[in-house]
Amino acid sequence: MGNYALILAAGEGKRMKSETSKVLHQVCGKEMVNHVIDIMRKSGIQDVNVIVGNGKEQVIEKTKSRDVSYSVQEEQLGTGHAVLCAKAFLEGKVGTVAIFTGDAPLIQESTVASMLKNHAEGGFSATLLTSVIENPTGYGRIQREGEEVARIIEHKDCSPEELLLKEVNAGMYLFDVEELLASLQMLKNNNAQKEYYLTDVIEIMRGKGLKVGAVITEFDETRGVNTRVHLAEAEAIMRRRINTFHMENGVTLVDPQSTYIGADVVIGQDTVIYPNNLLEGKTVLGKRVTLYPNSRIVDSQIADDVTVTSSVILESAVGKKTSVGPFAYIRPQSVIGEEVKVGDFVEIKKSTIGNGTKISHLTYIGDAEVGEHVNFGCGTVVVNYDGKNKFKTVVEDHAFIGCNTNLIAPVTVHEGAFTAAGSTVTEDVPAGSLGIARAKQVNKEGWVQKRKESGKY
To answer: Which of 9, 94, 163, 441 has its CA 20 to 30 A from that of 365?
Structure first.
């Protein structure tokens, strides 16, 4: 006995008006189908099969990192047909299969867990997810017999009395695998669309005397995304949910409505986030971090007591008690140590910066290994690229780089060495030495007057 999942992700999504597969549009920084896959996994369902069709190459590319298998629906002949296309995945399995849609990213782990519990304890062959809404127009109604589901009635087929029913089908199900496979063989497409509907399986099971149950959840959880308007609505709901979660766990959001936090972001207690910050991907913030307005942090680890102001940090790590910004740019594969100052208009690319180092302003450091307690003067440039190759620069502990120094890689400034302001350093500077690499100043007296007299000024 096991739990399995099928994710329906074969639809074309014409109403999105996009070259991107509908299920790959992102909500809070993650593809909708990956939201659903991740919720299945969090709910304890490890064996997940994604049913692909339109744009299948795109969907496979974006989901393959989640270790799922695939079934292919070449023709779009309805939800029942889609599940039939996964017959090879289901055959030989014993247990429960969850069938969810890849364009409904708002489903929550607790709801799936409740469905699984209710399904098992009730001895049901099928369990539906439903919602109760005030205006159910257009939705299939749930007709019950006691606690069990008698049938699903499409809106167009409802009698006046049935139109008054407010419990509607969400299109998400649990089935006993063996009973599902048996019922799928009995599906017919004798309808106007000539399609095979998964909802007909419920009627087939009821006709066999099998028990069908239902779990009611909030309508917001069951929302499918079919248009860009729906996408924005789902984004707003999930963003509010994410922000509420963090605030309830000890994070201060000064203005939640203007704070954008991705679904997989982790934030420590007593962190304070000011307006217009964007946290994406697998970003992890430690405790007591302060993010002043207007920063973007992506797939990065920010340690305790860090301060960031109006800066961009991409795929990097920042150590404890470091300050970044304003207007700093930390590019991928950078590791910034503890108690470092990365000041205004500083750019760091693929470099390691040791503890206590100060890079206060107007400096570029690329492909460098920088030690501890180094001081970079204003306007320093690590010249790492010769037009063809990138080279490494090493600046050892306690070095002092004078203002407007160019370090032409490959080069090493050894421990405790200084460079004179305005130097272009092309050779290693020995430990404890002063490197001076600038032309001797020459003053040409009377030069300006002569230029004026020549008519060139």
So the answer is: 441
**Contact by Cβ (8 Å): 72, 56:** yes
- What is the number of other CB atoms lying within 10 angstroms of the CB of residue 266? 13
CA atoms within 13 A on the CB side of 290: 10
Give the span between the Cα atoms of 203 and 422, in whole angstroms. 83
Backbone angles phi, psi at 38, to 5 degrees: -65, -35
Query: For the purposes of burial, counting CB atoms within 10 Å of the CB of 400, is it exposed (0-12), middle (13-18) or buried (19 or more)?
Result: middle
Q: Where are the domains of the chain?
A: 2-222, 249-340, 357-457
Catalytic residue among 35, 81, 119, 361: 361
Answer yes or no: is 421 a known binding residue.
Answer: yes
Write the class of the CATH domain 357-457: mainly beta
443 known ligand binder:
no
Q: What is the mean pLDDT of residues 251-280?
A: 98
Shared fold status for 249-340 and 357-457: yes
Mean pLDDT of 313-320: 98
Question: What's the predicted TM-score (pTM) here?
Answer: 0.92
Please count the residues of the chain: 457
Query: How far apart are alpha carbons 105 and 330 in whole angstroms?
Result: 32
**Maximum Cα–Cα distance across the chain:** 109
Evaluate whether 286 touches 320 at the Cβ level (below 8 Å).
Answer: yes
Q: State yes or no: 73 annotated in a binding site.
A: yes
With beta carbons less than 8 A apart as the criterion, state whether 130 and 216 touch: yes
79 is in an annotated binding site: yes
Q: Is 364 within any annotated ligand binding site?
A: yes
> Taking a C-beta distance cutoff of 8 angstroms, is the pair 230, 223 a contact?
yes
Place of tokens 């500077």: 429
Q: Is 398 a catalytic residue?
A: no
Q: Which residues pair with 383 in a beta bridge?
A: 408
CB 97 within 8 A of CB 90: yes
Using one digit for the tens of pLDDT, what is the confidence trace for 389-398? 999 999 999 9
pLDDT-based confidence at 338, cuts 50/70/90?
very high
| Per-residue model confidence as pLDDT tens digits over 14-50 | 999 999 999 999 999 999 999 999 999 999 999 999 9
Per-residue pLDDT tens over the stretch 420-452: 999 999 999 999 999 999 988 899 999 999 999
Residue 438, annotated as binding a ligand: yes
Q: Give the helix/strand (H/E) hosting 453.
A: helix 447-453
Q: Could you name the CATH architecture of 2-222?
A: Alpha-Beta Complex (3.90)
